[in-house]
Design brief:
It is built from eleven helices and nine strands. With 245 residues, it is an alpha/beta fold. It binds 2'-O-acetyl adenosine-5-diphosphoribose.
């Protein structure tokens, strides 16, 4: 089957789907110029997660961690949502309350595009969380030094990101689980499928009866498990799903 045949088939399944759940990863933002984690110029090829993205790293050197997040913030601030993010918004508008978006991305580009029904399971780089009182707030400017502190309790603020070794927020996981078990189509866009729990979502949805469609530049460890694997750039392929079957 050609890619065109796969796209036609994906459109047909979407047209028949009452409920739709979408999972996205760094690949959807790669077309906006945001670096992925494991690609050729991926962040984890040049930085060690244990130095920058763990609670221990933050305890050891909060300034280094904040400097790294500020560098990523500056980079992301220059990027814009692309046609794939916009197509996901269009799908949300069509499916209304029968669609749920799960993203591992912390760049905020889905929200910037207009997505509203979403779980940002790894957090959001534009949000901070107080290490004392736990209050989460939006904060787009973290000038260093001094280290940022909470207005309410003066404790240190940290990025509102799920770091390695930390658990995901329970209510988000609960929400995602519902969306995975209760969808007809599960669309997986631009993720390497190696970081749990998201790496297990395709199996959960498939076991619950969903048709699983993957869109990725390359084959992934999940490609054999999914029902339909579309290879190409998210910015080209996701908008093609919007056409009638
Ligand atoms: P990765 O960098 O692991 O994988 C990106 C995926 O996107 C790969 O499978 C690429 O083939 C694919 N890709 C790249 N460009 C693409 C394009 N233009 N169109 C479609 N696909 C493309 O990123 P994630 O899977 O998102 O976690 O990584 C998952 C988590 O690992 C991240 O959320 C992050 C990281 O450690 C935390 O920071 C907690």
């Amino acid at each position: 089957m050609t890619t065109d045949d796969h796209i036609l088939l994906a459109r047909r399944h979407l047209a028949a789907a009452r409920k739709l759940t979408i999972l996205t990863g760094a690949g959807i933002s790669a077309d906006s110029g945001v670096p992925t984690f494991r690609g050729a110029d991926g962040l984890w090829r040049n930085f060690r997660p244990e130095d920058l993205a763990t609670p221990e790293a933050f305890e050891r050197d909060p300034r280094l961690v904040w400097e790294w997040y500020n560098w990523r913030r500056e980079l992301i601030a220059t990027k814009q949502s692309n046609s794939a993010h916009h197509a996901v918004v269009e799908l949300e508008q069509r499916w209304v309350d029968r669609m749920w978006l799960i993203t591992q991305n912390v760049d905020g580009l889905h929200r910037a595009a207009g997505s509203q029904r979403l779980s940002e399971i790894h957090g959001n780089i534009w949000k901070v969380r107080c290490t004392g009182c736990g209050v989460v707030s939006e904060n787009r400017e973290i000038p260093l030094p001094p280290l940022p502190t909470c207005r309410l309790c003066q404790a240190l603020l940290r990025p509102h990101i799920v770091w390695f070794g930390e658990s995901l927020w329970e209510e988000e996981i609960h929400r995602c689980d519902e969306a995975l078990r209760d969808c007809d189509v599960f669309l997986v866009i631009g993720t390497s499928g190696v970081v749990y729990p998201a790496a297990g979502f395709a199996s959960v949805a498939k076991e619950a009866g969903a048709m699983v469609i993957e869109i990725n530049l390359d084959r992934t460890p999940q490609s054999n498990l999914v029902d339909l694997s579309l290879q190409g750039r998210a910015k080209d392929l996701v908008p093609l799903l919007l056409y009638p079957a």
